[in-house]
Amino acid sequence: MAADGLIRQQYIQRLYVEHQGWLNGWLRRQLGCSQNAADLAQDTFVRLLGKDQDMAAIREPRAYLHTIAKGLLINHWRRRQVEQAYLDALALQPEAVASSPESQALIVETLLRIDSMLARLPAKVSAAFLMSQLHGMTYAAIAAELGVSERMIKKYMAQAMLHCLLLVEEP
C-alpha cells in the first residue's frame, strides 16, 4: 500500500511539473490576476491529492485538471459575488453599525454556507425562501409568483427551514 502511495505521489508530481504552467496561464486569463490564478492552480493540485482514484487511469490530464480548476473557479466567482453583495449592503449601513474585519469574515463565511445550502435545494424551494426572507413577501404572493399553491409554499418553507437548522448543526 505504501508503494502505491509513492507511485501516486510521483504521478501527481509529474502532472504538476508538466501541466502547472499551462493551468496557471489558463486561470490567469480567466481571472486577470496572477496571484489568484496561482492560488487556484495550487488548489487544483491539492484537490487532486485528496482524490482517491487511480491517477494512471487519467488519459487526458489537461482536460481532467481543467475540470477541477473550472469547479474551483466557479466557487471563486460565487464567493466574490457573495462577498461583494455583503460589502454593498454593509456600505449602506451607518458607520456605527460597521463590524470588525473578523466579524465581516465570519459573516461572509456564513453567507457562503447559506448560499451553498440554497444551491443544493430545488429551485422553487430556494426561490420561495429568498422571496420570504429577503423580500418579505407573503406566502400568497410567493405562491402567485411561482405558480403553485400557498400550501406548497408552506412545504417549501418547511424544507428550507429544516436545511437552515441542519446548517446550524454543522461544525
Q: Could you walk me through the main structural features you see in this protein, from its secondary elements to its overall organization?
A:
- The mean pLDDT is 86.
- The chain contains 7 helices and no strands.
- The chain has 2 domains: 2-99, no CATH class; 121-171, Arc Repressor Mutant, subunit A.
- With 171 residues, it is an all-alpha fold.
- The protein has helices at 2-31, 34-50, 61-91, 101-120, 123-133, 139-146, 150-169.
- It is 80% helix and 0% strand.
- Keywords: Sigma factor, Transcription, Transcription regulation.
- This is ECF subfamily RNA polymerase sigma-70 factor.
- Pfam families: Sigma70_r2, Sigma70_r4_2.
The general outline is elongated
Helix-strand category: mainly alpha
The helix count comes to 7
Q: How many angstroms separate the termini?
A: 32 Å
Strand content: under 5%
Organism: Pseudomonas saudiphocaensis
Keywords: Sigma factor, Transcription, Transcription regulation
Protein name: ECF subfamily RNA polymerase sigma-70 factor
Domain RNA polymerase sigma-70 region: 15-81
What can be said about this structure in brief?
The chain has 171 residues and is an all-alpha fold. It contains seven helices and no strands.
